[in-house]
Design goal:
This protein is mainly beta and 247 residues long. The strands form two sheets. Strands 1, 3, 4, 6, 9, 10 and 12 form a seven-stranded antiparallel sheet that branches. Strands 2-5-11-7-8 form a five-stranded antiparallel sheet, with no helix packed on it. Among the domains are: 32 residues; 133 residues, Galactose-binding domain-like (Jelly Rolls), CATH 2.60.120.260. About 15% of the residues have low confidence. Helix content is 10%, strand content 30%.
Length: 247
């Protein structure tokens, strides 16, 4: 092989390698994807290696910050006409309802249990809102402005303690927000807790304050809601984890 052809071959290899680096750096989710058969090592947040060092983990003994309420509502007021009577307003026990008994003592709560949802399971409430899957279970909003949601199914009378959000966030001003919301079937909703991503942190997670909400599946339906303040991969949801106890 002539020297000219050898140099042309070396130049081609160098150019191909440079294009590969540029492609990988352009998409933070494209590196070593476990879904392509390669174990990913993309996590850049703080690895939760010590069980019990966060308030939503069993064995935690540090201070607990109680939620002071949700300051940013998941959605505005609506113009739905409510039903003429709320469930149970007339004091009548219906065939599909249990006779409620007064509690004689405080319930004995279990250790923490968890319901974990990958970001890719969330879907927008409107077909005009579009999203993109960035691998590793993370999604971002690409078009539209509606919220994303998924049903939250927990045991009746269990106690919700914390909501944790897993995210990829490199925006200085835009965040990913997540709520637990309940609906009464009569046109009303209530935000139970809100947790927000940490701007410019890259991959990471954050816990909400303690909420201590008792689940009432008789009168309410519970939903996880998410809002993306940006429409690009810089605001991505990778997961939501609900920490709860049973009695």
């Amino acid at each position: 092989m002539s020297a000219k052809r050898i140099w042309m071959l070396i130049a081609s290899v160098v150019i191909l390698g440079a294009l590969t680096v540029v492609t990988v750096m352009a998409n933070p989710f494209s590196q070593a994807s476990s879904e392509d058969g390669v174990v990913t090592e993309e996590w850049k947040g703080v690895v939760d290696a010590v069980i019990g060092d966060y308030p939503d983990e069993n064995g935690y003994t540090g201070p607990v910050i109680n939620s002071s309420g949700v300051e940013v509502l998941s959605e505005g007021t609506n113009d739905l006409k409510t039903l003429p009577a709320q469930p149970g307003d007339e004091g009548e026990i219906r065939p599909d309802e249990n006779q409620l008994q007064a509690l004689e003592a405080e319930p004995q709560w279990s250790d923490l249990h968890y319901d974990f949802y990958a970001g890719e399971t969330m879907r927008p409430r409107s077909s005009t809102t579009k999203f993109d899957y960035g691998n590793s279970g993370c999604i971002c909003r690409t078009e539209g402005r509606d919220l994303f949601n998924i049903p939250l199914i927990l045991p009746h009378a269990s106690r919700i303690d914390y909501l944790r959000i897993y995210y990829y966030d490199t925006s200085d001003t835009k965040d990913v927000k997540a709520w637990i919301v309940r609906f009464d079937g009569a046109g009303h909703f209530e935000d139970i807790i809100l947790v927000t991503s940490n701007s410019s942190a890259g991959f990471g997670y954050r816990d909400s304050n303690y909420v201590g909400h008792t689940v009432d599946n008789v009168n309410y339906a519970y939903v996880l809601m998410v809002d993306f303040e940006a429409t690009n991969v810089n605001n991505s949801l990778c997961g939501l984890r609900v920490a709860y106890r049973t009695s």
